[in-house]
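Incident log entry.

Two folding requests arrived from the same account within the same minute. Monitoring flagged them as a possible duplicate submission, but the sequences differ. Recording both here for audit purposes.

Request one:
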Amino acid sequence: MDNISPEARGRQMARVRAKDTRPEMAVRRLVFGMGYRYRLHDARLPGTPDLVFAGRGKVLFVHGCFWHRHENCELARLPKSRLDFWLPKLEGNQTRDRVNQRLLRKSGWRILVVWECELRDMPKLTRKIRRFLES
């Protein structure tokens, strides 16, 4: 069990960002450098996708492995304490992601999810994004 006070934990968690995260910024730089242009965080779309390629009918989400529970990923391990809080929170994130993706697909959007851990292999990620955007 960690020895951090609830107040300190609260301050730490308040610093966690929903937009402009380090992984998202890395993907944005990559995609821009590949020559693609996009809109950011279109709140009119379910789930407010991180990158929107409206002319292509495609959206891209950059998911943190921990927060979105990337299956079989070492970065998605559960915390050791307060599982009564964390399990419903993280499972709720997954449920919300599935619902939003289903709504987007029903509206005709194609979706790509880029996981935080995929940033470790940028050449492979570049190929994946290019295939998605050109298909």
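Request two (distinct sequence, not a duplicate):
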Amino acid sequence: MASIFELIIAGDIPADIVYRDEEVVAFRDIKPVAPVHVLIVPTKPIPTTDDVSDADLPLIGRMYAVARDIARSEGIADDGYRLVMNCRDHGGQEVAHLHLHLIGGRRLGPMVGGEAAD
């Protein structure tokens, strides 16, 4: 079954696309945590960070370059931004398709708050 990100990439579900090429699609998160919250998604379906192969390394670099370029075009590069890639349940991953969160546009709080559960 296709993930929601695969459906967005295919154009079957609408999204606010900010960038697209053959390898990467970037679109605004529907539940933003900051004024700028963009998801950078590879067109190749890779379920998690743990599933990235050595052959995928150029693709991962491409995702980060796209994030950099979007941060610049959104006007948040000079003040700073956060890039987050969650992995699986304990890492907070909600969609089983690799994605990079670009978050910025305001001062961000600590990465992880509170104490870890036992």
